Amino acid sequence: MSAVEPVSNEQSAPSLTKHSAAGTAGTLPQAPTNISIYDAEAFAEAHMEDIVSDSKAFFWKIDNWDKLERRATSDVFRCGGHMWRILLRPFGSSHKGVLSLFLECLGTADTSEDWRCTCRFVLAVANPDEPTHNTHGSAFHCFHRNNPNWGFTRFMKLADLRTAPAPGVRPYIEDGACTIGAYLHVIKEPSQ
Question: Which of 13, 123, 137, 141 could cysteine-pair with 150, CB 3.0–4.6 Å?
Answer without folding.
Answer: 141
